[in-house]
Amino acid sequence: MRRIAISVAASSLALPLAACGVLNSSGSSAEETPAKGNDITVGVLMPEKTNTRYAEFDYPIIKSTVSELTSGKGKSEYANAGGDAKVQDGQMQKMIDSKVDVILLDAVDSHLILPMVKKAKAAGIPIIAYDRLAEGPIDAYISFDNELVGEVQGRSLVEALGGNVDTSDKIVMINGSPTDPNAGQFKAGALSELQGKVTISESYDTKAWSPEVAQASMTKAIDKLGKGNIAAVYSANDAMAGGAIKALQAAGVTTMPPITGQDAELTAVQRILTGEQYMSVYKPYPDEAEAAAKAAVSLIQGHDIEFDSLTRDTVDSPTNKKIPAQLVSVVALTKDNIKSTVVADGIYKISDICTAKFKSACAANGLK
Length: 368
Fold this sequence. Notes:
Elements: E1 41-46, H1 53-69, E2 75-80, H2 85-97, E3 102-105, H3 114-122, E4 127-130, E5 140-144, H4 146-161, E6 170-174, H5 181-194, E7 199-204, H6 211-225, E8 232-235, H7 238-250, H8 266-274, E9 280-282, H9 285-301, H10 304-310, E10 313-315, E11 323-328, E12 331-333, H11 339-343, H12 350-353, H13 359-364
Parallel strand pairs: 1-2, 1-3, 3-4, 4-5, 5-11, 6-7, 6-8
Antiparallel strand pairs: 9-12, 10-11
Helix pairs in contact: 1-9, 4-5, 6-7, 9-10
């Protein structure tokens, strides 16, 4: 079931207990897993380091939640592939060899990881796809509503262009990595809001979500369209938005067109305050990471009811259908709600955001 809410207060997000495809415990993969006690090990595989969220937010929350749920006896093993699918294969093999009890997998490449997912399954290790939906016999999927992310971005661009928006407005799209299934969902969601209202003049997929590749793509678009003929820029995440902004600045643009982002990175929050970036999508990492940890512990301990209540959505991958899932909602982050989202949720302190360079922008927006 597709969620339709566009923005909710992040601090009020709760684990959804009502959605489509409610699983009976007889159909749960948890029933197939021998119950274990608190002495468990959760393997955590993250995809890349360009985005700082994995090390700074996701994993620490997963680790602490696993520990809390197991009375301090549960352990977590962490590895980050740095954007290299072969490296991630090796990291996953190491976790299989060390016989972790369950793996939370955020795949570098959702297709290429398939043989390793099958290998883990053959070894009796359940896999929960985290953030990105990997192919193969996945036991569950914990992520955000990715199409909604794109819808929020696209709708925000249209709103930023104001009442005079029309099909003559030229939009440049800087999309995510073609190996990340989320990127296609972000793009589809954005296009559902943009098509028919503006002209998508240039659209680029970005290998490995690289800011440098995004900057090069934006430079191509400027050279082709002219710096004064770009009404807005759709950037799928904040790091690439930074690259697009560098390209525009290098071309001599001083007043930025509306530019989207995603992930609410600290530098993006600061750019939003100064007007360089119009918005980001805040994805409440505490909700996603906590849900993943709860699902992992419930799955391996055989707590069918808890597992089912956490995964009442379902999703399809190219290889499997009706995968139990939880899809967390998201928030459009603008200068108007920084305090009620990333500050209220403890992601950043005002002192983190309002460094000397941004004191005046913070004061102008009531951040003090």
